[in-house]
Amino acid sequence: MKKLLGYGKAGILIAFLVVFAVVGAVGCEEEMTPEEARAEACVKLMEFEAALEDMVTLGPGATVGDLQAAADDVEARFSEFQDAAAEVAEAQAEGLEQAYDQLQSTIEEIPDDATIQEALTLIQPDLAAVGAEWQSVVDDLNCEEMPTGSPEGSPEESPAESPEESPEESPM
Fold it and tell me: Higher-confidence residue: 1 or 151?
């Protein structure tokens, strides 16, 4: 048994050390502080809102397929928010999750031959509900107090504040 699996003692030792290092690195992952967890949840919440905004601002040439692709991006961002919220905002996120689930259900029921305007009209009540729940979570987590930092280092406008100042109609 000089060469177990053809690698010899040195190969087995190297393999053992690699496995030990990987397992050790995974086991040593530090937990976030409550403030870091709240900040992460806020970032993911803002990314979810941005994806929603992208979805509802599809142009007149967009198709229901484009809407469904945008909805897939919204779903990915919402999933990331849920993962981040598990640390700090699980209870606050329940209402948002229910409103989001209803929005997803409505999107899935849109006929393929619907125009983008018809589709957006169908989802408008659900978007309003998601918007209200989104704002509730932003308020609960105090996300508006979190500096988002632009590349120049100055705080950027919070998406929660932009609907009043934007000439475009907000979907939420």
Answer: 1
